Write the structure tokens for this entry.
Amino acid sequence: MNIDRGLAVICAIVLLCAGGCSAGSGGNAPATEAAVTMPPSEPETVPEPSAETETAPEPSHRGKLIGENQDLLNDEQKEAIFNYMDRYYEALSSLEMKDLSDLFASSASGQMAFHRNAWEYMIEMRRMQKSDLRLDDYVYRMWILEAEERDDGGINVDMGEQSLLRFALMPEVTAEYPGYWHDFVLVQENGRWALAEHMQWEGAFWNMLKGHQDEDLENLENADEVFAERKELLLSQMAEDMERRERLPAAAEEDSPIPRHEYDREAAVAYARAHVDERNEEWHDYSGEGGNCQNFVSQCLLAGGIPMDTEGSARWKWYDEVLNDDSEKTGCTLSWINVDYFCAYARDNSGSGLAVQVDADFMSGQAGDLIMMGPPEDWNHMVIISEVVKDENGETIDYLICSNTTDVQDFPASAYPSPRRSLIKILGWN
């Protein structure tokens, strides 16, 4: 797939930032910031400008600004944003930390400490994995949602981003980040524009900020120590979980439920890929109500032939948005839309409906199986495996996943910033 062509034809995106496990399924950013928007679309071939039209030269960056709001920022402000974005992707390409001091204003020491530790967390957690998670290639596009001048002469900028990534792990596969939300605050300093604040509503940043979401980081005492401690905590949680997964025994055949009906894995994965960034309008979207990840995965299972379950004490259904746990074919159960409740249903169900193995041998997964993710205190995310990645000896070393909240397609599971993972093997249904 040609990255430039592929990104040019992306024409639908949900920018969502949801967190926690409320009505929805949880995710990696606060529900209060959720927004649904459409990116500006572009023709696959750009027409030649007329003689009367002056066209600005393309910037020398790996990204591109698209959309109708480009005149809300001047060239120097755009340059400050693209300098940040380029440096970020350079760090992820090499898995080597980059200098941030020229990107941020001198007054933004708290912000710089936050970003430095967030970047270092992403780099170190990717280095810890069996897979080679350096970026082999990437391209990104951004568009301006809103820009507002500040009383101090600075400017607040809300932007969307869409990106296509190729990892050294599988350079022939294009992973897609259909989009997420950036908040920038730019200020003038010594004749240049620099970042005074930035938030990238993506899991690593949200995990790093946890506990300080509502604070002005410039007023945070010993910010570098605070975020360095948080980074080390997350890395230690990941290391502990990797050891835990290594110790998981392979399930004996007699210990696993034997379902009467098979699961159509190909159908489930096909549905997932079709609805990563383009929601199925037949279903309610919980993106701004706690997250859409479990709702998305439940739909994938249904597409794979797993029927809704209204029998017995453990139920799993969605007929409409009204919550209820009765046996009627109305409303929906929390197990359909919430990670913790789905896990409880999967673990406890023994009659009709879904048959699974919970917390299975992590490297025994297949396409169509699920991975539950989150920090130790909160399993808050569910994804579906779209492809198994094997080494030259045929051993599983990673998975590609599809997800809602954050939306990703064919993204390496080991690159996802949640420190804990657990495999849920879908065996079939009764």
